Amino acid sequence: MSDCLFCRIVSGELGAAVVAEDEWALAFRDIRPQAPTHILVIPKKHLGSLGEAAEEDAVLLGRLLLLAKVVARGEGLASGYRVVLNNGGAAGQSVFHIHAHVLGGRHLGWPPG
Ligand code: 5GP
Ligand code: ZN
Question: DSSP assignment of 52-87, as one string?
Answer without folding.
Answer: G--GGGHHHHHHHHHHHHHHHHHTT-TT-EEEE---
